[in-house]
Amino acid sequence: MNKTKINPTIKTQLFSADKDQVLAALNKLKESGNKDYLPILFELLVAGCESEVETQIQKLLGTVKDKETIPVFINALQEEHFQPIRKNIATVCWQNGLDFSDHIEVFVNIVISENWETAFEAFTVIDNMETFPSAEVMKPIKLKMAAALKVADEQKAYLLEELLKLST
After folding, report:
1. Cα–Cα dist 117/86, whole Å
2. Angle at Cα 77 formed by Cα 17 and Cα 26, nearest 5°?
3. Cα separation, 155 vs 153, whole angstroms
């Protein structure tokens, strides 16, 4: 994604009631978007858009390769406002292949606290990490996972056990 200002025309099109205008704006973003559009796309998802639009947003978010967008994704995952689309955000985090290892605790917290489907998507992000933080950084995270394991249901227990194995 390039570093350009938000184009007011594209922003207006994204919030249009006309699905074709929204899809046209999304196509423009595929070619020339920037990270400043990400919160707008999250807002569209949380507001509830047509399934075709939602699918195109998911595809677009899953192709983001700019590492400067990582904090934007992490902030969205942590914002309560975006809780209804947390699963969608976690899904695109593993699809886009960005390195979220510095934010492993955010994904562990999602595994612990969210429903099974959202937890599984967060687990997948961690499972796809090529590197893990240092043992010193991981120690309190492992303790948190071990504590959660004691009260977890069977599905969550499986995910937490696998995460503990991965992070050793």
Report:
1. 10
2. 30
3. 6
Domain that residue 5 falls in: 1-98
Query: Tell me: the pLDDT tens digits for 23-43?
Result: 999 998 888 767 889 999 999
Which whole number is the average pLDDT over 125-138?
A: 92
Query: Do 43 and 79 sit in the same domain of this protein?
Result: yes
DSSP string, 11-32: HHHHT-S-HHHHHHHHHHHHHH
**Same domain for 109 and 43:** no
Residue with tokens 């504590």, as numbered in its chain: 147
pLDDT for the residue 1: 46
Q: Are residues 105 and 92 in the same domain?
A: no
Query: What's the predicted TM-score (pTM) here?
Result: 0.90
